[in-house]
Amino acid sequence: MSSSSFSVAVTGAGGSGAVTTGLILLEAMAQHGFYGFMLRSSGPQIRGGESAVMMRFDTGEVLAANNQFDYLLALDWFNIERFIDEIPLDKNSLVIFDLSAGEIPEVLSQSNAQVVGFDLKKMAKSIQGGRVNMIALGLLANTFSLSDQSIDRAVNKILGRKGIKIVETSIACVIHGMNEHKKSNLWPVKIPTGNLSTKTTRWSITGNEACGLGALYAGVRFVGAYPITPATEILEWMSPRLEKLGGGLLQAEDELASINMIIGSSFGGIPSLTATSGPGLSLMLEGIGLAISSETPVVVVNVSRGGPSTGIPTKSEQSDLNIALYGCHGDAPHLVVAPLNISDAVFTTYWATCLAEQLQTAAIVLSDQFIGQSRAIINNPTIEDIKCRRITADNAQENYQRYKILDSGVSPMSIPGTPGCMYTADGLEHNPKGTPSSMSIDHLTQLEKRNNKLLKFDYGEQWSDISGKGDIILITWGSSSAMVKEAAQQLKKQSYSIKTIAIRLLMPLQVDLLSAALKDAKKVIVIEQNQGKQLFHYLHSQNSLPIDAYSFARSGPLPFRPDEIANYIEVIL
Amino acid sequence: MSIELKPKDYKSDIKPVWCPGCGHFAILSALTKALAYLKIPKHQIGFVSGIGCSSRIPAYVDSYGFHGIHGRGLALASGLKAARPDLHVIVAGGDGDGFSIGGNHFIHTCRRNMDMLYIVMDNQVYGMTKGQASPTTDPDWVNKLTPHGSGIRPFEPLAIALASGASFIARGFSGDPSAMSKILVEALQHPGFSFVQVLSPCKTFRPEQMEWKKQVHNAFIEPTDDPALAAQAIHNDDGMGMGIVFQRDIPIWSLAKKNTNTKQDDSKTSIEKITSEFEL
């Protein structure tokens, strides 16, 4: 772990402004040259429920969950016991709370954290319209040596739409809090400060926005949408922007409709996407099978949450790998990719769209709540043009065969409106022309076509992200990748030689490339955030793991902590 | 350049899977006649369906088609029409496909009132699975699956279409292809969601339906644009009345309308603008 990293949690009842506090702090820290990310956690209530934000800052890009929290800002004690598992504290942690909020809960006193109370309510009252959360933010702002200017810009950006009065009051509160901290001298100012001289353009973006942006880059211009937590922000973010690009979004009556709508629009020649989460993905499977069979490109972003059934809608888990790989009936090869972090969500969704278009099939993008609903300050992600496009039949031809058997397995797709190569797309097995057929020869050749086009394609180096060198190899995927990489760095400092393979392309699995990467491995450990060891079993099923490989798998919703992974590895080594 | 197309030119060379005597043949003919009459270019047609005997129909028309999955034809067609408003989108299916498994899509597609034609070829039976009760089957019709009859009152397609907001509602009969063809011409020309229920006897599993030709009658002589009058006409009818019962101009849902102020060709500038939102 980078020694310059530090972390802050803010908790409070609904309406206490924990999330706003976090957003302003993140923005102000960014203004000050820091990188960082903010994970949100909320209870089941729609409004008025408790919420928490967990933040981590560093002088370089940081996208992994931290081991423990340096600061906990408790705006009140409302339902603190529900969050405390998500906010590990130790004797080095500092808990700042409002004296008027009552006794310190027992769950906190057990943590040995240092505790400092302020009469935040009284301080807030000294300013007309003043709020506890902004005073508390001031205490931290001074701790992190934030300038008045950074605060000013951050408050304006986050609260500007609420009007000048609220902005001015909020800034006054923050300044008041900063002064109170200066006067009190109760805990030290933190050094070092951010890297103001950074030359790189930095972004503030959530994982869900990143998915949407990647899709727009790749040419998605139609979205079928049915709201579901925690994927809705992708749809909401895309809706007005699609319109700006001449496309649009159609709100469906259910997920059965949204997946079929995008099959229809894609059949019409427009690259199309839908975004959902576990329960919605379950409903979409028959449609995904239709896209595969009819060879119609579609992109389905699944922002995974705790499952099964309704599960834990607001929190993360990597337990939808099995359904993404195996959910369809029949032999239904398709694409499954997973972004490794918020920044990578831009590229991975872009890539998924390009691949779906090129290979005329369904691509499932497995994001999750940890990536999707977190906001991060990142370096401006660069996207290299990978030049995958849909191959179309543009001219009238005698005897056009939509599902013609060609070497690549990809046959030119005619788009409605093109004269002379009409066809009927079908989920029934068909012959090369598209005519329904139950003959074994047609079934065999079309199954092979749909399989071969995926197997013969060269996906390049993007199939995984490999870092480090060594004969101890950690394999992981998706949002756990950031924590696994950080655990590997921690262990490297103890002279272990460790390689990390974060798999981006889960289906089709790049078996040969993975085997090559595992050559000379002494120990292989598969790390994932689900109870069923889903990746571990999948890799075994593809003969891609040594027989003595280890599995470190546990359910969500708590994110992995780098220490937790490092400790496990140390025990087995 | 344009050669006048005859109805038969709209038929593909694929032989229908339907049984001899099936009412669906007449619907195929009436539709191709209507398409030829309106001179709709074949490559500008998107013909979508779900699953069932009737849902096989897109392959029998020489146009762009999509034979999708059971009950979802309307959803797929809505996506196609939204993304490609220039196409003539036609959806066809049966009573099980449209009113049972696809019932929710039926309601919401009526509500959305996109410009497309939906033909339900209603024979009051699941034919492809060999004779079970559908939503429009009478409750006392005995079959293997429900040996005492389904015991459920029939679905009322026209009433539900009206209540859900369809802007063109009609009923035709496959035994009167010429009248049906006229209804389809009107339906294809109507701007909005046109719903046409066509009574289409199933000779194999409901041979008694061959009597329908004696039971159908002209009921809806002039379409009304008053939902209250239409509701009354539907309510007073015995389910065998033919004609266009309701037609009204209601705002059409479309993406294109929303986008009249945006230019499609400056997407690069726009993407850059969108990207700049994230910059600190």
Please provide a written account of the structure.
By secondary structure, chain A is an alpha/beta fold. Chain A folds into three domains: 6-184, Pyruvate-ferredoxin oxidoreductase, PFOR, domain III (Pyruvate-ferredoxin Oxidoreductase, domain 3, 3-Layer(aba) Sandwich), CATH 3.40.920.10; 204-379, 3-Layer(aba) Sandwich (Rossmann fold), CATH 3.40.50; 461-572, Rossmann fold, CATH 3.40.50.920. Helices cover 37% and strands 20% of the residues of chain A. Chain A has an eight-stranded mixed β-sheet with strand order 6-5-4-1-3-2-14-7. The longest helix of chain A has 21 residues, at 164-184. The radius of gyration of chain A is 25 Å and the shape is globular. Chain A starts with 5 loop residues before the first strand and ends with a helix. The mean pLDDT of chain A is 95. Chain B has 280 residues and is an alpha/beta fold. Chain B has one domain (7-253): Rossmann fold (3-Layer(aba) Sandwich), CATH 3.40.50. Chain B contains ten helices and eight strands. In chain B, helix 8 links the parallel strand 7 and strand 8. Chain B is globular, with a radius of gyration of 20 Å. Classes of the chains: A alpha/beta (573), B alpha/beta (280). At the A-B interface, strand 7, helix 8, helix 9, helix 10 and helix 11 of A face strand 1, strand 2, helix 2, helix 4 and helix 10 of B.
